[in-house]
Design brief:
With 367 residues, the chain is an alpha+beta fold. The protein contains five helices and 24 strands. The strands form five sheets. A seven-stranded antiparallel beta sheet has the order 13-12-16-2-11-15-14. Strands 1-23-19-20-24 form a five-stranded mixed β-barrel. This is Efflux RND transporter periplasmic adaptor subunit.
């Protein structure tokens, strides 16, 4: 006897068989695993390295002068261009000097005339031909004419602009045959032998600087953008005792000779590296490491300060109790609980649990 099944019966039996077969294979059903959370890490550095601080800086000309004529006139000859190197005393520009030359010659002739009259009065006074009053008047006129002549001579010299020191023409502000006024800037001259680097040091560092503990032989160094493989020693020049407007920091200026192997110009960027251990009080030089403020949290029950440490061997995180010191611009001082090389989580710490598996997102170096 042959059993004939309808299409619907056949599909139903097939579905039941498939379900029974799947139920017998206990390995065919995958259990969803929790996603591994990515975390951002920060690597703690040795406390001695923390004292090596980097400060952004801009190159300045150590000497700079805005040059102008002391008298008005028409610019007759601009003898230099921007970028030209010049020597002290070199002529940089001339005004049309015809008027002042004529004035000088006129004053010179007047002076010579009054000089002759004075000598004549002096001779006649000895012969008692003229009075003492006539002699005194001739003498006064001569002295007045001499002063006027000196003024005319100065005006003639003022028609020529000379370099007050060795340097480089940074800017030309006028063109030939232009009418210029007295004290109007014509050229900007910058010294080309020495440059300055100015940095801003925050009050949190300045307050710990001790003049008695500064290593007098120590020299910070500079690294220029685009040439980070080279460093150049700096010499302290000066510092401001007035806070920089809009900040809580103070300007400190260092100098160095212009590098011979680099084309360093005013306005370029540089980094000044200072070992704070050479300038700050001994009590502030160590005994702690720095971590970002975002790495610090409090334990739920005890309110003690903890950080979450990451362990390479297990890819797990665990809370570690720490003792914190001061909060500075560079980070939070950790007095105890962490060591050089430890890795701490700096983002998303509120979602971490003890022993949680995580995946490093990015590792930051010490501050």
């Amino acid at each position: 006897m042959v059993l004939v099944l309808s299409r619907k019966q056949w599909l139903l039996m097939t579905s039941v068989a498939v379900l029974l077969t799947a139920g017998c294979d206990e390995h065919s059903i995958e259990i969803a695993r929790p996603a591994v959370r990515p975390v951002k890490l920060f690597q703690v550095q040795d406390s001695n390295k923390i004292l090596l601080r980097h400060f952004p800086s801009k190159v300045r000309a150590s000497k700079e002068a805005e040059l102008s004529f002391r008298i008005p006139g028409s610019l007759n000859n601009l003898a230099v261009n921007q970028g030209d190197d010049v020597l002290k005393g070199q002529v940089l520009a001339h005004l049309d000097d015809r008027d002042v030359t004529n004035e000088f010659r006129d004053r010179q002739a007047t002076y010579q005339l009054l000089k002759n009259e004075f000598y004549r009065a002096q001779s006649l006074l000895k012969k008692k031909v003229v009075s003492q009053a006539d002699y005194d008047l001739a003498k006064a006129k001569l002295e007045s004419a001499k002063a006027v002549l000196e003024m005319a001579k100065d005006k003639l010299e003022y028609s020529t602009l000379k370099a007050p020191f060795n340097g480089r023409i940074a800017q030309t502000a006028v063109k030939n045959y232009q009418q210029v006024q007295a004290q109007q800037v014509v050229l900007v001259l910058q010294g080309s032998d020495v440059i300055d680097l100015a940095i801003q040091i925050p009050e949190s560092i300045i307050v710990h600087v001790n003049k008695m503990s500064i290593d007098r032989g120590y020299k910070p160094f500079a690294v220029f953008t685009g040439a980070s493989e080279k460093s150049y020693p700096l010499v302290y020049k000066e510092h401001a005792t007035r806070v920089t407007a809009g900040t809580q920091s103070y300007e400190v200026i260092f100098s160095l000779p212009v590098p011979e192997d680099l084309n360093v110009l005013p306005g370029m960027s540089a980094t000044v590296v200072i070992d704070l251990g050479k300038i700050i009080k001994e009590s502030q030089r160590g005994g702690y490491v720095l971590v970002p403020l975002s790495a610090i949290t409090s334990a739920d029950a005890t309110n003690k300060m903890v950080v979450w440490c990451f362990y390479d061997q297990t890819y797990e995180v665990k809370p570690v109790e720490v003792q914190i010191g001061r909060i500075t611009e560079a980070g939070v001082q950790i007095i105890s609980g962490l060591h050089s090389g430890d890795q701490v989580v700096t983002a998303g710490i509120s979602r971490l649990t003890d022993g949680m598996k995580v995946k490093p997102l990015r590792k930051e170096r010490g501050l």
